[in-house]
Amino acid sequence: MERIAKRPKERRSSTRREKILALLVESKSFLSSQEIHKLLTRQEISIGLATVYRQLESLVEQGRADAIVSPSGERLYRHCGQAETHHHHIICRVCGAATELDFPEVEIITQTYAKRYKYKSVTHSLEIFGVCLACDRLQSSSIKSRRKPKLS
Ligand SMILES: [Zn+2]
Ligand SMILES: [Zn+2]
Ligand SMILES: [Zn+2]
After folding, report:
1. Taking the chain (152 residues) in consecutive chunks of 10 residues, what is each chunk's mean pLDDT?
2. What is the Å distance from ligand 1's center to 118 Cα?
3. Residues with CB under 5 A from ligand 1 (ion)
4. What residue spans of the chain are helical by DSSP H?
5. Is 15 helix (H, G, I), strand (E, B) or coil?
6. Which domains does the chain have, with CATH numbers?
7. pTM of the predicted model as reported, rounded to 2 decimal places
8. How far is the CA of 34 from the centre of ligand 2 (A)?
């Protein structure tokens, strides 16, 4: 797939893209472009934030990364291994852990309403945000230990 005669500039940007992709593969959670930029800088890779953003968007376009919008409206990225196929996520608001979801119900509802309102080429996005079991346990145990003297 790779062309042999690449201009140096293209080659450099493609290695950077691979570095960004490697970060997304390693990460268990969704990351913002700022967080990815910070991680790259820590690895002493000099790259501008705008370039990071462009590279991330091109990875998403190629179906090699997954993008979602957080409740605060921030765009977040991750490599799910199934970005090519349509899917949903459940994401922890505290630690950012994400799990892929198959949502047959949502697909059916989408088709039902598209038909009802005669809409063609419909798409949808749905992500569930919450606090995962591990984070919930951590939170409640720290609350308990703080309250200890009162309860007992
Ligand atoms: Zn995903
Ligand atoms: Zn969590
Ligand atoms: Zn869906």
Report:
1. 53 80 91 95 91 94 90 90 82 90 92 97 93 94 66 48
2. 29
3. 66, 80, 100
4. 8-26, 33-42, 49-61, 104-116, 133-147
5. helix
6. 1-84 (1.10.10.10), 86-152 (3.30.1490.190)
7. 0.74
8. 20
